[in-house]
Amino acid sequence: MLNKNILLWSLQICLLGSTLGGNVLIWPMEGSHWLNVKIIIDELIKKEHNVTVLASSGALFITPTSNPSLKFEIYQVPFGKERVEGVINNFVLTWMENRPSPLTIWRFYQEMAKVIHDFHMISREICDGVLKNQKLMEKLKKNKFEVLLSDPVFPCGDIIALKLGIPFIYSLRFSPASTVEKHCGKVPYPPSYVPAILSELTDQMSFTDRIRNFISYHLQDYMFDTLWKSWDSYYSKALGRPTTLCETMGKAEIWLIRTYWDFEFPRPYLPNFEFVGGLHCKPAKPLPKEMGEFVQSSGEDGIVVFTLGSMVKNLTDAKADVIASALAQIPQKVLWRYTGKRPATLGANTRLYEWIPQNDLLGHPKAKAFITHGGTNGIYEAIYHGVPMVGVPMFADQPDNIAHMKAKGAAVEVNINTMTSADLLNALKTVINEPSYKENAMRLSRIHHDQPVKPLDRAVFWIEFVMRHKGAKHLRPAAHDLTWYQYHSLDVIGFLLACVATVIFLVTTCCLFSYRKFGKTGKKKKRE
Amino acid sequence: MLNKNILLWSLQICLLGSTLGGNVLIWPMEGSHWLNVKIIIDELIKKEHNVTVLASSGALFITPTSNPSLKFEIYQVPFGKERVEGVINNFVLTWMENRPSPLTIWRFYQEMAKVIHDFHMISREICDGVLKNQKLMEKLKKNKFEVLLSDPVFPCGDIIALKLGIPFIYSLRFSPASTVEKHCGKVPYPPSYVPAILSELTDQMSFTDRIRNFISYHLQDYMFDTLWKSWDSYYSKALGRPTTLCETMGKAEIWLIRTYWDFEFPRPYLPNFEFVGGLHCKPAKPLPKEMGEFVQSSGEDGIVVFTLGSMVKNLTDAKADVIASALAQIPQKVLWRYTGKRPATLGANTRLYEWIPQNDLLGHPKAKAFITHGGTNGIYEAIYHGVPMVGVPMFADQPDNIAHMKAKGAAVEVNINTMTSADLLNALKTVINEPSYKENAMRLSRIHHDQPVKPLDRAVFWIEFVMRHKGAKHLRPAAHDLTWYQYHSLDVIGFLLACVATVIFLVTTCCLFSYRKFGKTGKKKKRE
Fold first, then answer.
1. pLDDT tens-digit profile of A38-80?
2. Does the pLDDT of residue A352 top 60, yes or no?
3. Mind telling me which residue stretches traverse the membrane in this protein (chains A, B) (predicted)?
4. Would you say the CATH fold of A289-449 matches that of A19-279+454-476?
5. Which of A231, A374, B177, B479 is geometrically suited to a Cys-Cys bond with A401, CB 3.0 to 4.6 A?
């Protein structure tokens, strides 16, 4: 007997499963964010989707690649690469000079406000570059995109999607105090055990820590609310109706979060949040010849891989000397990605490189430790390959990332501003010689590898799901339809309290009335 | 160059991935729960695990099967099958006679308290049957189980796991007001948009609904707290230290929840919660000959599948007549699973069966509608095959399940107590003839089929994960280490309020002091 239903579904799932030739639009962010989303793009192209990246003429990292399948739609903005570079450098420097601590958080906020103002100026020019370009918008409309993948650190991807009438998905590492995830995405963040981002706290908090965490959430909420407030009117104007940045962000179908439980402390989330941390990780490839020989020459001692990421290129001479002299004292060979002046104290065991194949080095069996600024991409490569870390965090989520790795026993931190050669040396000796660090790094690696579906496959699955179903409305919580006081049941609690108060009032009044009436009557009776 | 790390991991994952020959212990629950967990057991056996079921001598449904690979460890209890049957029947009847509504919830609670007392008496005898059987406990210890899969509706699975020193996993549909998931599992349930179980509310609530929901949560919490309280001392005694039922339940490594987002309204959850609803669903097999011919004879009109589940066998004659006369008026052929007296009004289009292959019928292309009591297993088969439903809910989660399907536009409900033939007839005509019901059922079906990993594979993955890693501690939220007031940050809020009050007091005192001192001086000066 022919089972039509099943045949139909099999065919449908087969057809759906492939989602052949879909059109995907990308709204990217600079720096390491771009490196991460590039991996998703490559996978989408492999699955025969047509991917178009919206990039401004002033973009720094987001530039056309050699891949002919990847289209770039370049729009004009009234600034050049230098300005983006200037804002990024200013951001990094201001953060490093004002690293937030419980006592300095207010000054940090005031200083960052200036930098973020510059950042918003650029962001707005980027938005205008697309939204006010009628010709481009019409071209995009004609291209019939099925989904837009947006990094919300640069606002406007969501507006473009709404204007094109297509669903959008976010790729996000974090927002200050997780305000966006919390208020716009409606994820609960209990301050009692979920450490606020940028607080450098863990999920094991003392009473004082919990006070810090509580204040941290509210301060960062305030920071986000005040600094991002001006976008509300921009969004309202662009969409032609009164709205807010947060309301619009809340329309994201899926939130691809660039972490996983090998890195995060367990916390509540919603079904439209997918944790795809480490999606860029892959097995190591063989090293270039010269580098491979240097690594092999390390013998039993192995190697240390050292990079401070793409944002920091040079250090002061003094700082570079402090670092180089520490490195010179370990038996391991060191591969240091550094483009600054060659430090005077550089040891024979250390080689400087303009660029290193970080993933291939960390995946090499001789890798003993990773000195890292603590960017999420790098940390995930270390987790993937099970390499313990020495963290030298500088800005953004880096101190927090290292705090996570410290709490999980896979890293030691040194303070870039105050460290001596001895500090760095001791940190390196600790992670290399104390077996617990390697064991913990390997434990995280095992957790990372032992998932039902690989992070990259999950990210692509949900992008394709949104394309197949024109959204993922079945995962969207009804919390989005409530006001903040309804969400917290304040109206219900208020009403119930009012009821209780009314009952108490009525009962008391009745009692008093009865007492007065019958009390007096009683007295009268007694007198009679 | 040989990349030892990668080779090592590939080998490790390969070895881990299979988790060959693990020993799994099952703590099952009666009725449809057993049917569901049986599917997981079969899959575990397929993957060459050794599975042992702990079943009492008084078990009703949990009886040795023909599968020689499945071991049963039967322990003696001082009651027979009749007593279990009696308690279940009493439970069903009491619920049906006192179906909870906003006005009758208190009476419902009082009546249910009696039934639940009987249920706890049996549960305790079951627990004693294992825990006080030294020989059995020693035998279990010798068997070196690696994980225990427990249905927590019968308590004690967790104690047995802890006494054997092995991790345990729950398979759970719900607990009253989700109290267990909320208080023991630490999942947040915002009452503003997450409908309390048994409330029959959806995620779209008016102000009045939200008041009902708020009260529902607290009443059911109270119900759970008072009725299950007596287990605290049993657990403390069994584990030899002061503990509570809730604290012990909180030690579950993974919670396999028997629903998914095709059925649930989106709500927060934690990373150790896995939604595996519909894991028992599978493509339809060909029907037995006689049945197949009857189904084929329905022509274009198709068939209606009708069952009230395994718990309800007979109806009153009057009720059966009402139902049969409605069924007689539809053009579809009806397959009714019914073991009671043949109703006088039975139409020629309706056939009674002692048992029907429900899944194969629902998966048949001629299936037009499913009349169901609304058990989760049956609903999931209807979702899987995309068949719209007429719900005749009776007890437990059934009214709630049908409320979910109604809200998603895939079902119409009729009240078993008050329904007339016309009610049932209209309901059937609606779901069969209004295309939206079929469309919505198909939409749910598409959502169900379009998951990165099938529910059964995910359930087995996490059981094997716990076996491979001896737990899943990386998914356990730190909320478990906090007291209730710490969890809600009440101590922090109290402290901060005290600080603010102190500052206000000091400032006011200073102002008053200054005013008195300098005010008087001023006056004095004026006089001078």
1. 999 999 999 999 999 999 999 988 888 778 889 999 999 999 9
2. yes
3. 492-515
4. yes
5. A374
Each domain of chain B, given as residue ranges in start order, spans: 19-279+454-478, 289-449, 482-513
ipTM > 0.95 (yes/no) = no
Rounding to the nearest 10 degrees, give the CA dihedral for residues A387, A390, A395, A398. Answer: 40
| Sign of the four-CA dihedral A14, A18, A21, A27 | positive
Collect all residues of chain B within an 8 Å Cβ-Cβ radius of residue A211: 492, 495-496
**Is the pLDDT at A214 greater than 60, yes or no?**
yes
Q: Which chain B residues in 487-516 lie under 8 Å from chain A, judged by CB atoms?
A: 487-489, 491-493, 495-496
CATH topology classification for B289-449 = Rossmann fold (3.40.50)
CATH of domain A19-279+454-476: 3.40.50.2000
Residues A177 and A188 sit within 8 Å (Cβ to Cβ) = no
Of the candidates A181, B215, B254, the residue with the CA atom closest to the CA atom of residue B205: B215
Q: Determine the residue type at A37.
A: V
In this prediction, residue B61 carries a pLDDT of 87
To probe the interface with B, which of A450, A451, A460, A496 has the most B CB atoms within 10 Å?
Answer: A450
Please answer whether residues A440 and A409 qualify as being in contact, where contact means their C-beta atoms are separated by less than 8 angstroms: yes
Query: How far out from the chain centre does Cα A61 lie?
Result: 18
Identify the three-state secondary structure at position A73.
strand
Instruction: Express each pLDDT in A413-451 by its tens digit.
Output: 999 989 999 999 999 999 999 999 999 999 999 999 999
Q: Which residue of A has its CA nearest to B286?
A: A1
Residue B269 exposed, middle or buried by CB count within 10 Å (0-12, 13-18, 19+): buried
Under CATH, domain B19-279+454-478 is a member of which superfamily? Glycogen Phosphorylase B; (3.40.50.2000)
State in Å, rounded, how far the first CA of chain B is from the last one.
Answer: 100
Q: Does the distance separating the beta carbons of A284 and B4 come in below 8 Å?
A: no
Query: Taking 70 as the threshold, does the pLDDT of residue A324 lie above it?
Result: yes
Alpha carbon distance B248, B348 (integer Å): 56
* Average pLDDT along chain A: 91
**In chain B, which residue's Cα lies nearest the Cα of A497?**
B211
Interface contacts (A, B; CB < 8 Å): 210
Q: What's residue B19's pLDDT?
A: 53
Long-range CB pairs of B325-328 (<8 Å, 24+ gap) are B325/B421, B326/B421, B326/B422, B326/B423, B326/B424, B326/B425, B326/B428, B327/B424, B327/B428
Contact A371, A405 (CB under 8 A): no
Distances in Å between the Cα of A361 and the Cα atoms of A201, A281, A282, A449, B137 are 30, 13, 12, 19, 51
Phi, psi angles (nearest 5°) of residue B225: -60, -45
The answer for A 39-78 residues in CB contact with B (under 8 A) is: none
Note the pLDDT of residue A244. 96
Is there a contact between B265 and A478 (Cβ–Cβ < 8 Å)?
yes
A:165-194 residues touching chain B, CB 8 A cutoff: 187-188, 190-193
Q: Amino acid identity of B512?
A: L
Identify the pLDDT of residue A315: 85
CA separation for the pair B321, A138 (Å, rounded):
65
Chain B closest CA to A295's CA: distance in Å? 11
* pTM of this structure: 0.93
Helix residue spans in B229-316 (DSSP H): 231-239, 245-249, 289-296
Q: How far is B365 from chain A (nearest CA, A)?
A: 5
What is the layout of strands, in order, in the sheet containing A273-275? A70-75, A50-56, A23-27, A147-150, A168-172, A254-257, A273-275
Which residues, numbered 347 to 376 in chain B, qualify as contacts with chain A under a Cβ-Cβ cut-off of 8 Å? 363-365, 367
A450 chain-B contacts, CB cut-off 8 A: 13, 16, 465, 468-469
Could you say which residues of chain B have pLDDT below 70?
1-20, 102, 311, 519-528
Q: What is the pLDDT of residue A100?
A: 73
